[in-house]
Specification:
The protein is about 60% helix and about 5% strand. It has about 140 residues and is mainly alpha-helical. The protein has a two-stranded antiparallel ribbon with strand order 1-2. Strand 1 and strand 2 (about 10) form a beta hairpin. Helix 3 runs parallel beside helix 5 (about 120-140) and helix 4 (about 95-110) packs antiparallel against helix 5 (about 120-140).
Length: about 140
């Protein structure tokens, strides 16, 4: 398993085999604050694994914090475009899902597209292209 970061994929090591002696969960009546485990409650192996995961999450957060928001938003906008394209290329096309992704991308671009720097115009072009593709595929599928 990996965690996406602006600097690339960061591997997250997970134990492939189930725990031989799992810890029992606190009873449902326990308050949320009392349900949290402390690192002191873990075996040395579990503690090392938890600390490594926490370090990886802290590094990922640090990378995200160091990346300009416009780049992250542009990446997510591009993901919406890709989602719409994937949905449109299914047999049969998944028009409702594609429409949702396209509408979400249009909403992002309407609200913040002008603040996405160089990527903004490329994403706006991609939005127009995917909207056109949607209309063509919808017409071929007998939609309105």
């Amino acid at each position: 398993m990996s965690l996406w970061t602006p600097g690339g994929e960061v591997p997250v090591n997970r134990r492939a085999e189930p725990e031989t002696s799992p810890r029992s969960a606190p009873p449902p009546s326990t308050a949320p604050d009392e349900q949290a485990l402390s690192l002191d409650d873990l075996t040395p192996e579990q503690r090392a694994q938890a600390e490594a995961m926490l370090a990886q999450m802290a590094e990922a957060q640090s990378q995200i914090a160091a990346t300009p928001a416009e780049q992250i938003v542009a990446t997510h906008a591009a993901g919406l475009y890709e989602l719409a394209a994937i949905k449109l290329h299914q047999d049969p096309p998944m028009l409702d899902d594609a429409r949702l992704a396209i509408d979400a991308l249009a909403a992002v671009m309407d609200q913040v597209g002008s603040r996405l720097g160089e990527d903004g115009s490329a994403i706006r072009d991609a939005l127009h292209n995917i909207q056109l593709a949607f209309v063509q595929i919808n017409q071929r599928s007998g939609g309105t």
